[in-house]
């Protein structure tokens, strides 16, 4: 199985690159952001709770996202592999994911980190906010909060995989196709 963690700050291109990767490698795409937005769209209790936090740029509790990922792994038992997009975002989530995969006789193959500076991230998210309809992209203060959450709680997850010799860094700035070529190069080298 090929299990890829696509890692990076909000707006670093995880969603953009995931769309291209699933086509090329036939992997199942698991985006906790998309799963949460689907809960919001359906108006579930979980979605209503998550929306309050997401609209403020805060992370949703670990137990909520861990549960969603566990359900999705169970629902895709014959998958060739998974792209984890936007998950894990805390060390507790990374530990939970390791345990979940271990219980299925599997593990993370690689984490690829898309490196993009905060100025470019702010620019991209505000640009997307103009037509995405996403409340968390529309307000610079909310974007700042998301970047703060990333630097204070999420960035450290890179070290978790670095310690396992699974972290690969790539430049996330530049043409989408060039970033994709760098990403594919990492996967093809496995
Ligand atoms: P996510 O949905 O994961 O969203 P994201 O991090 O903002 O976006 P992504 O990195 O995928 O950016 P994209 O490719 O779209 O999270 C939203 C919220 O959900 C979080 O704030 C949190 O509240 C909650 N949440 C999700 N997962 C969670 C978890 N595990 N635990 C707790 N809470 C969780 O790119 C952005 C823009 O850049 C696009 O407009 C794109 O076109 C553009 N772009 C991409 N690549 C580019 C390039 N190379 N050059 C120029 N522009 C580019």
Quick overview:
Helices cover 60% and strands 14% of the residues. It is an alpha/beta fold. The protein has a 5-stranded parallel sheet.
Features:
single chain; alpha/beta; globular; binds BIS(adenosine)-5'-tetraphosphate; five-stranded parallel β-sheet; 10 helices
Description:
The chain has 190 residues and is of the alpha/beta class. The chain has ten helices and five strands, in the order βαβαααβαβααααβα. Strands 2-3-1-4-5 form a five-stranded parallel beta sheet. It is globular. 34% of the residues are buried. The model has no long low-confidence stretch (mean pLDDT 96). The structure holds BIS(adenosine)-5'-tetraphosphate.
Helix content: 55-70%
Give the neighbour order of strands across the main sheet.
2-3-1-4-5
Quaternary class: single chain
> What hetero molecules are in the model?
BIS(adenosine)-5'-tetraphosphate
How many beta-strand segments? 5
- Average the pLDDT over all residues and give the rounded result: 96
SSE topology sketch:
Blueprint: E1 2-8, H1 14-25, E2 28-31, H2 32-42, H3 45-55, H4 62-75, E3 81-85, H5 91-103, E4 110-115, H6 118-132, H7 135-138, H8 140-154, H9 157-162, E5 167-171, H10 176-188
This protein binds BIS(adenosine)-5'-tetraphosphate.
The site of BIS(adenosine)-5'-tetraphosphate has 29 residues, from helix 1, helix 2, helix 3, helix 6 and helix 10.
């Amino acid at each position: 199985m090929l299990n890829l963690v696509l890692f990076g700050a909000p707006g670093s291109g995880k969603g953009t690159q995931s769309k291209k990767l699933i086509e090329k490698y036939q992997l199942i795409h698991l985006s906790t952001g998309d799963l949460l937005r689907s809960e919001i769209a359906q108006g579930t209790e979980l979605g209503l709770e998550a929306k309050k936090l997401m609209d403020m740029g805060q992370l949703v509790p670990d137990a909520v996202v861990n549960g969603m990922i566990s359900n999705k792994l169970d629902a895709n038992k014959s998958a060739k592999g998974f792209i984890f997009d936007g998950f894990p975002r805390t060390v507790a989530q990374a530990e939970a994911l390791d345990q979940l995969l271990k219980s299925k006789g599997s593990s993370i193959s690689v984490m690829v980190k898309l490196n993009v500076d905060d100025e470019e991230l702010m620019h991209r998210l505000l640009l997307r906010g103009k037509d995405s309809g996403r409340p968390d992209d529309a307000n610079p203060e909310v974007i700042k909060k998301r970047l703060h959450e990333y630097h204070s709680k999420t960035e450290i997850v890179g070290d978790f995989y670095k310690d396992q010799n699974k972290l690969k860094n790539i430049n996330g700035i530049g043409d989408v196709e060039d970033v994709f070529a760098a990403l594919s190069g990492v996967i093809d080298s496995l």
